[in-house]
Amino acid sequence: MVVADSQSSDTGTILRVRGPLEFKCLLDSTDALLMHKVISRTFETLRSQVKSESCVLTVCDSPVIIWPNRGVHATPEEISPNMLCEDLHQWIQTGEQESAGKRSAKKKSKKSPGASVINLRLMMEVTKSGPVSAPILSRTVQKSHFLSTSLPVDCVVRTTCNDTIEDALERLLEALTHQLCEMEKVALQHMKGTTLLVPEPLHFLLPEPKGLVTVVYPAGVPDSQLETQRKELHQQFELPEDWPYFRRANAYHFPNEPYRDGYLRNPHLVLTHPSLDNGKVYLVQGIYSYHHYMQDHMDDNGWGCAYRSLQTICSWFQQQGYTERPVPTHREIQQALVDVGDKQASFVGSRQWIGSIEVQAVLNQLLEVTSKIMFVSQGSELASKGRELANHFLTEGTPVMIGGGVLAHTILGVSWSETTGQIRYLILDPHYTGAEDLQVITDKGWCGWKGPDFWDQTAYYNLCLPQRPKTI
To answer: C-alpha dihedral over 107, 112, 113, 116, to 10 degrees?
Structure first.
């Protein structure tokens, strides 16, 4: 594994270099020791290439090309080794600016601050200057095994506002060399006969002050078979052994990469916390997707709010690495309730509501997740549940589904004062029917802080509090 940085993920500039390195070697023998030696020599050749003058880095979406081992020679000529690394942003073009061919600063979201990322591409020059010589061909007849694959190199380093391009690229090349060493170890450790599993680097953001860490896993080996490696990593970084940090689903999502499924993640992060006398904020821990009415080409307006709240909860378990199962559809939720004997077969495909008890049953059936149910005889009593809810978010950290009357919501946290008893609830509303527009969702209160009067004071409520498995 490679420690990429120990600074906060919310500030500074991340340099990220990616690019396939072609791995090719001939195995003249099936002897394990000899094969390992050949593979190690091939990795050593790749490390030499990274350190050679033929190594080239291009800044994505820009005209910038850098030869880091030629005294940090670069084009355009205005770029010098002593230039501040963050000044590279001025050369990066957005989509609108590419057609105009003008360099300008990258646009930054006003509502989603965080680390900026400069993406680079790793390349190798295949031609060299010098006298031209005639090619020489030779033919050798022998039986051998040819290994050929592309290594998905992916390295990151964080820069500060005072780091020069030369300083940053020196650290980046060190990280690249280190990553190739880790790839070699993983490839040899998991080699089966003459089959080489491609080593894949993944980045994980650990709690402060540990920061961003890169781990190399063998592609194709499921998380269930990598528990020993994860335990070693937990011990190395002194992490608790009841919360997953190094499953593939925990991999860090870089701020400039959109999620392919189109769902918003953690819209509550842009909200300002309420101010209560001696109040503390207790929030959902980890990442979830916002699921609401009318998504997935499904018209569930008026009956599907609890289904959507359940989908948000399932997305939390999926994105924390507790399950590899996709978020269930309405039909799969209904079928699960039929399978456990809670509903008749005619329930599948219907537009019938479900509540907290059904959510509990589905989580247990599909994800093997247990849940506690909190019963509240009338909405006015919810104001007295601050301690229980605060403890849930502190210890379990999962989203909570609450159902009362004909409505269901998702509670993502509470702001609660132990001295005064004041409380505010962070609500994610599944009744929203619009587009995935963060500005609208937060400005209009579809994700927002609510007071005790948000609840129907006379209706009874059931709360489903999912319990996370104590595992890594």
So the answer is: -50
